[in-house]
Design goal:
heterodimer; A: 287 residues; mainly alpha; ABC transporter involved in vitamin B12 uptake, BtuC; two-stranded antiparallel ribbon; 2 strands; 72% helix; 3% strand; globular; B: 333 residues; two-stranded antiparallel sheet; 15 helices; 4 strands
């Protein structure tokens, strides 16, 4: 039982990190970033390449910092090349789905071309196991469980206290009014994309410590994040986070009691159930 | 006078298309070339069908490739596991796919925009999960091997090298006629009206959800048949048909060819299938090239390759009154 809850909390925490980034971009730009999963993967590869002896060999600390700095730049590049030209056009929503899918194909094959398809392992940030209440858990799992809420709270404080964060929310609510108040909308979009990319990078590094790193490691988390944002409601950060933990828990319990192969079926049934009752998700607002 | 020329042009293009269709299987006799041709024709069917719902109706329906996959699996499961006679499995596949398409779209279209895309994406993943979990029937990740040949009165299509080529061509031609007819009918116009100005269209009495569900069901019919043909031709049904990469490939056909044209995706399907195969020695780099192509098309040629055609002044004048492609128009408000 303890092990199931731990596994649910770990997945929930990772999904929350991934889905929060998607939700943030949707909230302020009104577009959906299908390249988010590939950003996660790229973050893991960046950390691996900087830290591993097979790459630069600078150690994990520099690897993480360097990877996150790289994510800021990558977020900017994705925004400038794949999103910005379509913002404000009639079919931005559809066009950006396509361009970000194209971007993810490009990045995924680029990584495959550079590093090959073989699995890589990234060092765990913390090693060993911890015993809590009769269950032993990997220290890295515990780190994920603790770090994700801390990061999400930090993000929430950033969005509600910091000037840039407030500006992000102002732009999300009313772009024209925000512009009249002297907020540089363009700068805010870039900031949003970079924050979202960093969140994806963190998720990638944590995931890379738990499992292997491969060019398609971002696909499953992204698909789960789809379920999460529909379940919780896109654009609502509390809804997204709640949805992420709910999905993580459902997944953990269903894997144990119903079977790992049937879990996606269970998730889909839950999803359809929610949509029939509440088409905008648990806490979403109508578009 | 001008009208005569358009009519002559139209008849001439029909004659050319039919002539190419009749001759191509006799010219492309090599195994590889033929294989490539059959695949690109089947992809052309799927991409041009998808164009009806994505391009004309503007529905973010990402389950279309799943219809193709379900079609191939119904054919394989029916013939291999339940001994359903060949041909009957085609009818069964159409019935199953239309039912699934109708049910899922009726549920998914309670939502709007991006949510539709996410739920239909989830459906495709569900198919893979079901295939993996019901191994006894579906063969699991390996798929089902040994799907029997299609046969007409004892004549097996696989025994004659051109037969599947012609069968695929017939399917493409019939499907294209049906799609163009639907797209230009009152039904098609109502879909475009809903896409461009939903509130007004609904106010004029167009039932939004019903029209869209019907569009998805109609577009799934030739697609499911293409899936059957695919399974019978390749002798296998594999979960790869539900993969993200196939969805992306077909999507790029619709977009690069030109959404909202039906013909564009067909041209793009043939060009991209042959092109990516021709660049085989480049390995993964060819996918990067396709990705760059998608972005460049969306940026600089939102109407797709087919819109190049309309740059010819005479045609542009004639088309001025027609429905523009969904991606081609700028924000007017």
């Amino acid at each position: 039982m303890g092990a199931i809850i731990v596994s649910g909390l770990v997945s929930g925490a990772l999904y929350a990190l991934v889905a929060a980034g998607l939700s943030l971009i949707w909230g302020s730009l009104g577009v959906f970033n299908f390249a988010h999963g590939v950003l996660l993967m790229t973050g893991a590869y960046a950390a691996w390449w900087i830290s591993s002896p097979d790459g630069l060999g600078l150690g994990l600390g520099i690897g993480i910092v360097g990877a996150l700095a790289f994510m800021v730049v990558l977020g900017l590049v994705v925004y400038l090349l794949l999103v910005r030209p379509w913002i404000g056009k009639a079919n931005a929503e559809l066009a950006v789905i396509m361009t970000t899918i194209a971007g993810s194909i490009f990045l995924q094959n680029l990584i495959l071309e550079i590093f090959g398809g073989r699995y890589k392992t990234i060092d765990q940030v913390v090693t060993g196991t911890v015993a809590i209440g009769g269950t032993t858990i990997q220290a890295q799992n515990l780190l994920v469980i603790i770090l994700a809420p801390v990061l999400l709270i930090a993000m929430w404080l950033f969005l509600t206290r910091n000037r840039t964060g407030l500006a992000i929310r102002a732009v999300a609510q009313n772009q024209d009014a925000a512009q009249l108040f002297g907020i540089g909308v363009e700068r805010i979009y870039i900031a949003t994309f970079s924050v979202s990319a960093v969140l994806a990078g963190v998720a990638g590094i944590l995931l890379g410590g738990l499992f292997n790193i491969s060019p398609d490691m971002g696909t499953d988390p992204l698909l789960r994040a789809f379920v999460v944002v529909v379940f919780g409601g896109l654009g609502s950060l509390p809804g997204t986070i709640l949805g992420a933990y709910a999905i993580g828990m459902i997944e953990a319990f269903s894997s144990y009691y119903i079977g790992i192969y049937w879990t996606p079926v269970v998730l889909f049934v839950v999803l359809i159930g929610v949509l029939v009752v509440r088409p905008t998700g648990l806490m979403g607002r109508p578009t | 006078m001008k009208k005569d020329w358009t009519r002559i042009g139209r008849i001439a293009s029909i004659v050319v298309v039919l002539a190419v269709a009749a001759v191509a299987p006799l010219v492309l006799t090599g195994g590889v070339a033929q294989n490539l041709a059959v695949l690109s024709i089947l992809y052309a069917v799927v991409a041009s069908n998808w164009d009806l719902t994505l391009g004309y109706a503007g529905i973010f329906n990402f389950a279309h490739v799943a219809f193709f996959g379900i079609g191939s699996y119904v054919a394989a499961i029916a013939t291999l596991q339940f001994g359903v006679p060949v041909w009957l499995d085609l009818i069964l596949a159409v019935v199953v796919v239309v039912a699934v398409g109708g049910l899922v779209s009726a549920l998914a279209l309670r939502l709007r925009g991006i949510y539709v895309a996410l739920v239909t994406f989830a459906l495709t993943q569900l198919c893979v999960a079901l295939i993996n979990s019901a191994k006894d029937i579906t063969g699991g990740p390996v798929g089902l091997i040994g799907v029997p040949d299609l046969e007409i009165r004892g004549f097996e299509l696989g025994s004659e090298p051109h037969a599947y080529f012609y069968a695929a061509e017939v399917l493409l031609i019939l499907s294209t006629i049906a799609m163009r007819w639907l797209a230009t009918s009152h039904f098609g116009l109502s879909l475009v009206a809903l896409r461009d100005y939903e509130a007004y269209a609904v106010a004029r009495g167009i039932p939004a959800r019903r029209q869209r569900v019907l569009a998805i069901m109609a577009s799934s019919i030739p697609t499911s048949l293409a899936g059957c043909l695919y399974a019978h031709y390749l002798i296998v049904a594999s979960p790869d048909v539900f993969s993200f990469s196939l969805t992306t490939l077909l999507l790029s056909m619709v977009l690069v060819g030109g959404a909202g044209t039906i013909y564009g995706p067909i041209v793009a399907a043939i060009v991209l299938t042959v092109g990516t195969e021709g660049l085989h020695q480049l390995g993964n780099i060819r996918y990067m090239i396709v990705a760059v192509l998608i972005v460049l098309t969306l940026r600089f040629l939102p109407g797709g390759l087919w819109s190049l055609w309309t740059l010819v002044p005479a045609i542009r004048r004639r088309r001025a009154t027609r429905v523009p492609s969904p991606l081609a128009e700028e924000a007017s408000s």
